[in-house]
Amino acid sequence: MRQSESSGSNVDLEKGAPVRYDEELVELPEILKESITGFGGFGALLLQIAHPGVARGVGNHSEFATRQIDRAEKTAIYVYMMVYGTQEEKNYIKEWVNRMHARVKGGDGESAYFAQDPDLQLWVAATLYVGWVKSYEMAYGPLPEDRAERVYQEFSVFGTSLQVPREKWPKDRAAFDEYYRHVIENDLRLVPEGEEVYWHIMHPNLPWVFKPFIPLALYLTKIFSVDYLPPEIRVTYGLKPTTRYDRFNRKLMIMQYKMTPKFIRSLPKRYYMKRGRVMVAKLKERGFTGDMRMRSH
């Protein structure tokens, strides 16, 4: 296998596809330990549910209206375990995700969907890449070209850990931009299931103790996500670009975040890794094997 020397990233130039990063990640641990990247999750979710296949899967199977915190936590556990977990831990989490996804299917013809569809998984992984990297760059500035390419290649793990073939991940950031634009222009539209999920995002059904903080939380996530959403997606959701006041508040929040001690900024990472390891122990008790030879059902 020949590797790219110009970018310093592990890219198979003969196949034009990234090498899977299941064994060793260098850049992602540095990016995702910064909890500010989590603010990109709002925009990523909006991009996901704008895809009919994803929207139908989430809307019809995840009980999103009543399990918003649970769904967000399980997504976070998957993400952090794929980046910071041991290989054994990753295998158990992958097996668990695969079993969950195997149930998420339905519809006929153009309305058919299946959570193990590599195209849908690729789109979800792509939205995570866009959302988290954009949020990181809002706080720390644009990544240098060589590091940006390495970060991009390592993000392939969120697709290749499941059913996305290695060669399906766009070979570099230029190819990704073409893919991203193509999906936005040709595949995205808000179906009824997506509209319902969006309503529940904006009107979360949370315990009363959290309710006073909902308006502030929604505002902060929006000012970190709205500007990187394509204009047509903003129009779809009725969102407006940030104002000068919004951008001032975003800068102020970033300043406060950077002044926060690192051990506090990385609290989500430690919390979800602890939760993830408890989950792995429970999966073992339930008879999961961590055997990834059977990747789909």
Automatic annotation (TrEMBL):
Transmembrane segments: none annotated. It holds the Pfam family MPAB_Lcp_cat. Signal peptide: none annotated. Residues 35-250 form the ER-bound oxygenase mpaB/mpaB'/Rubber oxygenase catalytic domain. It comes from the Eukaryota. One of its GO terms (molecular function) is oxidoreductase activity. PANTHER family: BLR2777 PROTEIN, ER-BOUND OXYGENASE MPAB_MPAB'_RUBBER OXYGENASE CATALYTIC DOMAIN-CONTAINING PROTEIN. This is ER-bound oxygenase mpaB/mpaB'/Rubber oxygenase catalytic domain-containing protein.
